[in-house]
Write a structure and sequence with these properties.
With 122 residues, the chain is α+β, with helices and mostly antiparallel strands. The chain contains two helices and six strands. The radius of gyration is 19 Å and the shape is elongated. The model has no long low-confidence stretch (mean pLDDT 82). This is YxeA family protein.
């Protein structure tokens, strides 16, 4: 294989990996740890049956896409589902795993939020 051809192949692989990493970060697929959100009912969509068609976005009837912050003040957007409609304005503590997304959540008082989270979600 020629030297120039190898360089092109390596460049394509590097560009593809960079694009995949950017997609993962922007979509929230690569975040992990504890994140906090404030529920905004305007960011909720209600899912309806899909007549047996597989839906990879989750099976929960209420889907949320909300801005989130962690204890360091970093911000991102998280997507998750809930079996019930969540209380508007409530603060949630989310446990997030890479690729799997939100694996658990619990409602917390505003006073329990880390200071940088309180500022980021204000």
């Amino acid at each position: 294989m020629k030297k120039g051809t190898k360089a092109v192949i390596v460049a394509v692989i590097v560009a593809g990996a960079a694009a995949l990493a950017l997609w993962g970060w922007r979509s929230g697929a690569l975040i992990s740890g504890t994140w906090y959100v404030r529920v905004d009912s305007r960011a909720m969509t209600e899912k309806h049956g899909r007549d047996g068609v597989v839906d990879f976005s989750g099976s929960e009837p209420y889907q949320y896409e909300l801005p989130a912050a962690n204890a360091d003040g970093l911000r991102t957007t998280v997507h998750f589902g809930a079996a019930k409609q969540l209380s508007n304005g409530a603060y949630l503590k989310l446990e997030v795993q890479p690729v799997r997304g939100v694996v658990s959540w619990e409602e917390v008082a505003e006073s329990a939020l880390p200071p940088k989270v309180r500022t980021a979600l204000a």
